[in-house]
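Cross-check.
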Amino acid sequence: MSHRIEKYDLVRLEPGQYVPPKDEFGERMYHSSEFELVAFLCPCGCGNEISIPVGTKQGDWSMRSEVDGSLTLDPSLLQRGGCKSHFFIESCCVRWV
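Predicted model, tokenized:
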């Protein structure tokens, strides 16, 4: 298990760029507008990759770009298996529930 993540560095992928392998994630959060997803490692340090759909389809999370260039996801994220982490992403920062 690695250390807990408190804040992610946001990487906005250009069209044609793909999310890298999870062993290259570190404390980075990747946003692909082309594929309508956000991907990052679980902030608890368990090493699980989380991929969140952020498009306009029913069931997708909503994503808001903040003035400082960070992003906020809504609603909260709950890992149903494994570590059972439950948290919000607000301005690329982790807020635990």
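The mean pLDDT is 92. The radius of gyration is 13 Å. Passed to J.P. for a second look.
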